[in-house]
Design brief:
single chain; about 450 residues; alpha/beta; Urease, subunit C, domain 1; TIM Barrel; 2 domains; nine-stranded mixed beta sheet; 15 helices; globular
């Protein structure tokens, strides 16, 4: 008697990313409800009785990309901080403009950003930013899976470009209060697809007391934390001057680091900082696209050798997992002079199972195995840039592109089909962006941005 399932996905190649399983030719994934019941070689005809079948000639199925660190609505700054001395555009343009972006504008940006994530093959995000309630609403409607944190700090970010680190307790109190309220409202929402975190923005933009209060609230709520650390020379210098140690040592010493903390960047982390990470079990989100643009690449080999759980994220503005994997491989091989470092299968693991582990979701997502959540993507292999396609990991990681992502499935639901989100209106989102672009352009130019469009 045929086995009834809700959805059957068939492909020429299956990349399960589960331990010990190679790429499988002529593979399939059978889904019942929001769970995988089979992921492996195609069963004989008549074995399944699916309510729906997705079968594309010339395709590969793999876990959806897990984005361990991102800012979904940051697309407003695309191209405006990519050239110039690393970090200058961040403090001199982005931080100074963020305070003037309205709640409604963040809503529009979150909507467009969610469409971008889906189109890129990302099925899970870990986001720390402004107006998280708007992002949560867009995530809920789009079908994405997300961990979301409100950005908490007690300095005036717009004054950091002057080196002004004056603490304003009322700012920190208000932002932490909003972050807690967001977590209490949205944690577990969207049928469990949304999880909240508490997000202290960075090591140097929160006082020790604010870090401790945030840690206490996260513990009380039973949720994790998310922070930028060892990201810039200035941050490391400030912490060294104030605390006499590195940023990760400092976070360990004030009791903030733990296995439920996602630390992004580590670009300037010392050996002692990495020891602090390893000692506490804190987890690392590595964002390989942004680092080459800023001229400083973290010591990925040393970090992983310490046993620090590591996964890939996109950071901001360019949400392209394929480019990220290629950047990581190419940079590290050149840096080490080792053409064998970071094989493509490992790079893909870092953007699927590795990132899921960083988020504490390794038992639910990141690989295609029976019992796990049905989060997967289908990649169209018919483009001339992919042919002839031999099915090995280099064929996918080195040659696939974002436009090749044809179908995305989250919790067993099709959320992207034929390259288009099924639950969002991308044209409406882009039209809304266009209405705001003149105002953004004027502000960016006034801050030293290089936009040449109207406004």
């Amino acid at each position: 008697m045929p086995d009834e399932v809700d959805l059957l996905v068939r492909a020429d190649f299956l990349y399960p990313m589960s331990p010990g399983l190679p790429v499988i030719a002529d593979g399939e994934v059978a889904i019942r409800g929001d769970r995988i019941v089979h992921a492996g070689p195609a069963r004989p005809a008549g074995h399944w009785k699916p309510a729906r079948t997705i079968a594309r000639r010339g395709s590969a199925v793999l876990p959806g990309f897990v984005n361990a660190h991102c800012h979904t609505a940051s697309i407003v700054f695309r191209s405006q901080t990519d050239d110039g001395t690393g970090g200058v555009g961040l403090a001199g343009i982005a931080f100074r403009m963020e305070k003037d972006i309205s709640d409604e504008e963040w809503r529009v940006l979150a909507e467009a950003g969610c469409a971008d994530m889906l189109r890129s093959g990302v099925t899970t995000i870990n986001d720390i930013w402004y107006a998280p309630w708007h992002l949560a609403d867009s995530v809920s409607r789009s079908g994405l899976r997300a961990q979301i944190a409100h950005k908490v700090f007690d300095v005036r970010l717009e004054e950091l470009h002057r080196g002004d680190y004056t603490r304003h307790a009322h700012i920190g109190e208000a932002r932490l209060k909003d972050g807690v309220a967001f977590a209490e409202r949205w944690n577990g929402a969207a049928e469990g697809r949304i999880t909240a975190r508490i997000g202290t923005h960075a090591t140097d933009t929160c006082s020790a007391s604010l870090h401790r209060e945030a840690r206490a609230e996260a513990t009380r709520l039973g949720i994790g934390m998310h922070i930028h650390t060892a990201q810039t020379v200035k941050e490391v210098a400030v912490i060294q001057q104030e605390q006499g140690c590195g940023p990760l040592e400092y976070l360990r010493d004030i009791g903030m680091l733990a296995p439920d903390v996602v630390c992004a960047h580590l670009s300037y982390a010392s050996d002692a900082d990495l020891d602090a990470m390893a000692e506490t079990g804190a987890r690392y989100a590595h964002c390989p696209t942004i680092y080459p643009r800023r001229g400083r690449y973290p010591r990925l080999d040393v970090i992983r050798a310490r046993g620090i759980p590591t996964g890939f994220g996109t950071d901001w503005m360019q949400n392209d997992p394929f480019e990220g994997m290629r950047n990581a491989i190419n940079v590290m091989r050149v840096r080490l002079g080792d053409p064998d470092y970071l094989p493509t299968a490992e790079a893909l693991w870092l953007h699927t199972m590795g990132a899921a582990t960083v988020l504490g979701l390794e038992r639910e997502i990141g690989s295609l195995e029976p019992g796990k959540k049905a989060d997967l993507i289908l990649v169209d292999l018919n483009g001339p840039h992919l042919q002839p396609y031999y099915g090995d990991h280099p064929a996918l990681v080195f040659y696939a592109r974002v436009p090749d992502v044809a179908v995305s499935i989250v919790d067993g639901q099709v959320v992207l089909e034929d390259g288009r989100p099924t639950r969002l209106d991308p044209e409406a989102a882009l039209s809304a962006l266009d209405r705001h672009k003149p105002g953004w352009s004027r502000t960016l130019r006034s801050l030293g941005g290089r936009c040449v469009c109207c406004g």
